[in-house]
């Protein structure tokens, strides 16, 4: 049963009814019985409709890296909305689409110098997989059709993304998915990695499984490998030291494209514009979304290396290079928001700031180790995750109770994955707010044990 709730007295026919919205990735009835509603945001905080501040320890959903409702971003969106609402991205263009692509490319390492724009991380994942297939086919390697993901990976919810993804609840009800997919093993091993700060020492050898897949399927059938530099949705699992370099070496040896899904790690989360830079590895493609506009307007995209762009864009014949795109690719509001966001990141040195505060963040977050029931703590960049014991009535129930208590009693927004709290605050967080995040989480942990 949903409760009557004064959502907004001007909102429509049934303003007090939460029933109609079929909420994504949410237990609808439990939420509607005890809603966690926010209606305003500024900098590090959300505010409930009653005006109660909620400390945002999740940057919304790993998006609001510059903090919320920053004036330059708000103004850029307002100005763009008044100037030009929409422009078709097929066969026509507008200046900000080119400007933002150049800015994003300039932030990427190596020759990742072209950008295909879309509207979300899911679209970015599917776009990258399609580009990989089309790249090999265009170069005459039409047998290279197999895509390799990784257990516990998350690449959004399109059919491509869930096929290469490795989270069973996201896959099991959705039919046979894409054919010709295989998965690398995940890199988490609690026994060997527990309570690591940053990249764990153990785990690079897990990349060798790719050699095994080459032996099994033959290199001539393999198109691309897609991994997140840090698995976010499955509970924030950083790449082990040396793991991504080894994947790059094996991909190079066999002509397999390497795709980094940087939808979470892009735009400063690990202290660099892209995690590829932190790890000194240049993948063939990087997918991004979220932080590209600090979450203010939906936007995603795929950075591709020069050899990929050149494969499609060979001559000045007026024929379409890639039969793929979205009506809202390079939407003017998204481009305006992104340009303002990228300015803010640069002016405030927010990526470098993460590198500076990472040790402070890690030390503070790891103090939660003293709490009852804690099984592991992981930190990397400005990300923290704490795993704790599940209750007997099922995995995830203790975390759900914790998330409710965090919101209603402690005034903090956290994310859960199974019985893990994952936090990833806006990059503008200050030291006292880091302390506040840890104190509030500590009190929540005390309450749920
Ligand atoms: C690594 C990764 N890839 C893709 C996605 C999907 O992004 P979206 O929800 O914008 O489709 C996410 C979302 O959290 C993600 O974390």
UniProtKB/TrEMBL annotation:
Source organism superkingdom: Bacteria
Cofactor names: pyridoxal 5'-phosphate
Pfam families found in the cross-reference section: Aminotran_3
Keyword set, alphabetical order: Aminotransferase, Pyridoxal phosphate, Pyruvate, Transferase
Group of enzyme by EC: transferase
KW Transferase (keyword) present: yes
GO molecular function ontology, one term from the record: pyridoxal phosphate binding
GO BP terms in the entry: biotin biosynthetic process
Known EC number: 2.6.1.18
Family: Belongs to the class-III pyridoxal-phosphate-dependent aminotransferase family.
PANTHER family: ADENOSYLMETHIONINE-8-AMINO-7-OXONONANOATE AMINOTRANSFERASE (PTHR42684), BETA-ALANINE--PYRUVATE AMINOTRANSFERASE (PTHR42684:SF1)
Protein name per UniProt: Beta-alanine--pyruvate aminotransferase
Protein species of origin: Starkeya nomas
């Amino acid at each position: 049963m949903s409760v009557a709730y004064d959502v907004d007295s001007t909102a429509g026919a049934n303003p007090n009814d939460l029933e109609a919205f079929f909420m994504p990735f949410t237990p609808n009835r439990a939420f509607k019985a005890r809603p966690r509603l926010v209606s305003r945001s500024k900098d590090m905080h959300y505010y409930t409709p009653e005006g109660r501040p909620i400390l945002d320890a999740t940057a919304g959903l790993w998006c609001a890296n510059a903090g919320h409702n920053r004036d330059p971003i708000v103004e850029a969106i307002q100005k763009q909305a008044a100037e030009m609402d929409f422009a078709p991205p097929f066969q026509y263009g507008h200046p900000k689409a080119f400007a933002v692509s150049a800015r994003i490319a300039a932030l990427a390492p190596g020759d990742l110098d072209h950008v295909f724009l879309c509207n979300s991380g899911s679209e970015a994942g599917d776009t990258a997989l399609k580009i990989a297939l089309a790249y090999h086919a265009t170069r005459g390697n039409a047998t290279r059709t197999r895509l390799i993901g990784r257990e516990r990976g998350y690449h959004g919810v399109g059919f491509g993304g869930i096929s290469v993804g490795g989270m069973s609840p996201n896959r099991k009800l959705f039919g046979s998915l894409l054919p010709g997919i295989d998965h690398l093993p995940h890199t988490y091993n609690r026994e060997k990695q527990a309570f690591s700060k940053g990249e764990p020492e153990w785990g690079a050898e897990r990349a060798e499984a790719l050699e095994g897949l080459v032996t099994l399927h033959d290199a001539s059938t393999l198109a691309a490998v897609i991994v997140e530099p840090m698995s976010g949705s499955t509970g924030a699992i950083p790449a082990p030291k040396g793991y991504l370099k080894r994947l790059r070496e094996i991909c190079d040896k066999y002509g397999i494209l390497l795709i980094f899904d940087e939808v979470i790690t892009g735009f400063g989360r690990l202290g660099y514009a892209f995690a590829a830079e932190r790890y000194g590895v240049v993948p063939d493609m990087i997918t991004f979304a979220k932080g590209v506009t600090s979450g203010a307007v939906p936007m995603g995209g795929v950075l591709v290396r020069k050899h990929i762009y050149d494969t499609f864009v060979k001559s000045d014949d007026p024929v379409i290079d890639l039969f793929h795109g979205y009506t809202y690719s390079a939407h003017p509001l998204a481009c305006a928001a992104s340009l303002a966001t990228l300015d803010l990141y640069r002016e405030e040195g927010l990526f470098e700031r993460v590198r500076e505060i990472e040790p402070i963040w890690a030390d503070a977050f790891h103090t939660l180790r003293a709490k009852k029931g804690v099984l592991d703590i992981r930190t990397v960049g400005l990300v923290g995750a704490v795993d704790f014991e599940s209750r007997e009535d099922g995995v995830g129930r203790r975390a759900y109770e914790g998330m409710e208590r965090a919101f209603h009693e402690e005034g903090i927004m956290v994310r859960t994955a199974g019985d893990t709290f994952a936090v990833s605050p806006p990059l503008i967080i200050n030291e006292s707010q880091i302390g506040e995040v840890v104190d509030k989480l500590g009190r929540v942990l005390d309450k749920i044990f």
